[in-house]
Amino acid sequence: MDSIVVVSEERAPLIDSYSQRCDGARGGGALEFDGEMLPESQRCPPTPPATSVVHPARLSQPNQRLASLDVFRGLTVAFMILVDDAGGAFPAINHAPWFGVTIADFVMPSFLFSVGVSIALVCRKATNKIVTTRKVLMRTIKLFFLGVLLQGGYFHGRNHWTYGVDIDRIRWLGVLQRIAIGYFLVAMSEIWLASNHPVHSPMSFMRKYYSQWVVVSLLSVIYIGLLLGLYVPNWEFEVSSSNSTLSMSNFGHQIETVYCGLRGNLSPPCNAVGFIDRLLLGEKHLYQNPVYKRTKDCSINSPDYGPLPPNSPGWCLAPFDPEGILSSVMATVTCFAGLQFGHVIVHIKSHLKRVLIWSVSSVMLVLFAYFVAILGMPLSKPLYTLSYMFLTAGGSAIALSLIYYLVDVKHIRKPTLLFQWMGMNALIVYVLAACELFPIALQGFYWKKPSNNLVNLSESFLQTILHSKKWGTLAFVFVEILFWCLASGFLDMKGIYFKL
């Protein structure tokens, strides 16, 4: 984290400062109400006479935040904690081994979708493109290298008592790095490609943002072209001899050969996504415990991790990065989808019209997903296929539409307040909880032996009470989520927000 912001935070307010915009209009400046949430009668009250006395509280109106976006972001972080910490006990809420989707597979796209919505709300206020570009570039760099620090192998996770990483094997890509890539490309398109055309009809909306749709089309064509057209040759990887069944030994390691020689193959060993990562990053710098180790080919406990079955293929031990280069190209399109949904907030003033447009668009995205799947491109998170992108973007949009209607339209906020708090400090919660920095620090305090630390004892206590290891684990995760919601609420009450 680069800084701690107290009281004020550079977030995505739904509208600009009410009083400042009204004053600007009266001073002869252009007055815009894009994204205004207030009724017409409340937008600019008449200027009081100079002799009148006005209570200070009436001179200003608070920024009206898009609370539903905070709730959506908080729910996404909560689901990530649930999936990461309870997915091992409940494979049904873990990621799909290769093809198909589970609830866990909607988490990463939801992050990207919310980033796109936020960019639409924030970048519309930018007045100096050069300065804004510089800020976006610096934030991208900081976010990327924070991801390398957290997911590059330096921290070894809970129940490990060491830290540090061999630079020769550092993992370069991960969740935050993917978000950084999407954020940069989408923010640049919003700053430099959105035209100055006023929006007063669906056609004018398309004219204003048509360049962004060209970028989306180009990214999609590049992805599909490489995924289906790139030739994947035979390849080799190094595996510890204790895990290998194979051939050529070399100082305690063996060389495994994977036979491909194919185009357009979407299976774990021979797809273009993995080939590009091995070619440009090197297999030592990829994720070493890929999700396809949970497939039936690679685990007798599928869909969970487990021992290799008899006569398992050699590629079961090969690395694969689920946040690789080519898959991040299509992941960026999810961020663009969120951007366009954010544009609806900016240009449409009616709550019901916003919800209607979002709902229709969401259903269309889901229908496109199944249409593409029928044509032969299955749902796959590791590959981030086009069908998966459509489905998860549509699902994220449906969820945001529902939350927006309940929270920002009907003002039903008490049931979602915990997640709103978490969403307002999503970055610090992700770093400390989802990346396990907080439990790693806590387990350093133990009684007589390292396994008797506060984290393990708390989880074991709940497992004992519930007479079930997996249900005790689930209860522990729910307590963990509640803890971070309340911690975020405390930070909000103190006006403290963490940002890059």
UniProtKB/TrEMBL annotation:
The chain crosses the membrane at residues 99-124, 136-155, 175-193, 213-232, 325-348, 355-376, 388-407, 427-447, 471-491. Residues 65-188 form the Heparan-alpha-glucosaminide N-acetyltransferase catalytic domain. Keywords: Membrane, Transmembrane, Transmembrane helix. InterPro entries: HGSNAT_cat. Signal peptide: none annotated. The keyword Hydrolase does not apply. It comes from the Eukaryota. The keyword Electron transport does not apply. This is Heparan-alpha-glucosaminide N-acetyltransferase catalytic domain-containing protein.
